[in-house]
User: What shape does this take?
Amino acid sequence: MTKGRGRAHCIRHLKWRDQDEGRSVPLPATIAAKIHEHLRLYGTFRVEDGLNRIAGDYLFSNIGRTNILMYSLVDRLWRNAKKAADITRKITPHWLRHFFASAGLSKGVPVTDMAAWLGHRDPKITHQTYAHIMPDAPQRLRTVMDSVFMLETELTLPLQFDALVEAA
Assistant: This one.
């Protein structure tokens, strides 16, 4: 809990990171196009001294001293977007994270890759959380192995495998 200017703010669900710490996530071309359109229309900015927008580094910004998007603003924008899309289910912005993970894992993206993009230190967390998304994994493996054994797919073996074969 922080206090300032006569108001109390509860800080929760935040992960404090170093300024240079972060992670890269693959951006689909459809989303990149939307961001480019947003940049074309609005540019980037930062807010200084109340409502004064000046050129800056932010794609989206809160109006205030920190420029950091506050949960209340994100929540209000989310509710407005849901209303505009006529969505009545109780879903939150956090569902986008689950959608990202579920879509990737259900289409065969490796758990280790998804874990890194989700910020999970251990892929076990990702697997435990999303194992129900991957019930067809055994069938996918059968399909891959059938195509390899029928010589329909070129198989690239790791270098370590070549060394083991030569030693035998």
